[in-house]
Amino acid sequence: MLVIMAFLIVLLLSGNTKGEKVLHAFQNQIMNCNEKTVLQCNISSSMQLNIVDIYWTKHEEKGFKCDPRSSDNTPGFECNYTREALTLTILYPTPVNMGTYFCCIRMDSGHGKDQINVSLGECRGEFSQQMAGPKQKECSFNSVYPDGIINWFHYDKNVTSNSTVTSLKNSDGTFNISSILNIQDNEERYNCSLWSLNNGQYFKYQEFEVEVEVDAGSSPISSTGNISTQHCLSCTHLLLALMFSLRKYLSL
Ligand SMILES: *[C@@H]1O[C@H](CO)[C@@H](O)[C@H](O)[C@H]1NC(C)=O
Ligand SMILES: *[C@@H]1O[C@H](CO)[C@@H](O)[C@H](O)[C@H]1NC(C)=O
Ligand SMILES: *[C@@H]1O[C@H](CO)[C@@H](O)[C@H](O)[C@H]1NC(C)=O
Ligand SMILES: *[C@@H]1O[C@H](CO)[C@@H](O)[C@H](O)[C@H]1NC(C)=O
Ligand SMILES: *[C@@H]1O[C@H](CO)[C@@H](O)[C@H](O)[C@H]1NC(C)=O
Ligand SMILES: *[C@@H]1O[C@H](CO)[C@@H](O)[C@H](O)[C@H]1NC(C)=O
Ligand SMILES: *[C@@H]1O[C@H](CO)[C@@H](O)[C@H](O)[C@H]1NC(C)=O
Ligand SMILES: *[C@@H]1O[C@H](CO)[C@@H](O)[C@H](O)[C@H]1NC(C)=O
């Protein structure tokens, strides 16, 4: 009697009545940053399947669910199924979308599940540069992944020790990394490069040559510019006034 009970419990826990694996997926998948990615679990069964429930979940993310029959799914995802496969489309992959996804199926006869471990390649992000002060050049790499450091070079000379780097994490898992270099002489050219940690070693990932503008960032030059514009405006006013008075004089 006990043996039969145990056998029935094992049968129930094994999910499918025939012990057959219904869902099949490749265990690992790599996404490209911001490039639409489709995860797929193939459905195969020797019997007719009466599907009660079919959906996707994500490991350690309780709020995540995608159900092809629901319109209330996690934003940024679409899912679908046919008789052959259950798919999950990640519209704009970012670092927070990495992790383990489960495709799940519940039928009259039991349930099935498989998993896909999803990782992400590099996010290039956007480079920008500016003068942070009269003798300070700033380089920024926004929305990059993975995190990194910025090194500065003046030709062969590593001048990184005269810079400070900051890294801020965005909600999508990417980083804004910026560095300010204190420069000694104006009219200099520098290379500002982003280095990322890979297998415990830093490697150069992106590099831009930047030029330090003479006097840029200091107020005198911009106010001189404004003064000269005002100057020109008053010149025009004067000229117009002169012309008007001349016309008046001539018409009299
Ligand atoms: C799922 O089916 C597609 C199309 O038939 C096939 O290319 C793919 O290799 C299958 N995946 C697995 C994990 O068997
Ligand atoms: C789901 O699949 C159906 C049938 O193949 C198709 O018409 C529909 O556009 C798909 N929906 C999405 C969101 O891909
Ligand atoms: C998922 O894949 C990544 C990279 O391929 C690996 O580092 C990680 O250990 C894997 N996790 C699981 C649960 O397989
Ligand atoms: C920047 O790097 C390039 C090659 O990586 C080199 O040819 C160039 O001279 C460097 N420029 C400066 C200002 O260091
Ligand atoms: C850093 O700056 C100081 C003074 O501004 C200068 O003497 C020194 O040579 C600089 N170091 C590097 C590596 O450029
Ligand atoms: C440049 O200097 C910084 C700090 O001074 C150091 O961490 C970094 O490894 C150096 N980079 C290279 C390529 O020598
Ligand atoms: C990163 O940079 C982007 C673009 O400049 C900005 O919108 C965002 O707020 C920055 N993130 C953080 C954490 O500062
Ligand atoms: C000079 O003019 C620019 C726009 O032309 C303006 O943004 C700037 O604030 C002005 N600077 C001063 C010191 O008035």
From TrEMBL:
Name the record gives this protein: Ig-like domain-containing protein
Superkingdom of the organism of origin: Eukaryota
Keyword Acyltransferase (UniProt): no
Pfam families per record: C1-set
Residue intervals of the Ig-like domain: 20-119
Region forming the signal peptide: 1-19
Keyword list, A-Z: Signal
Protein's organism: Culter alburnus
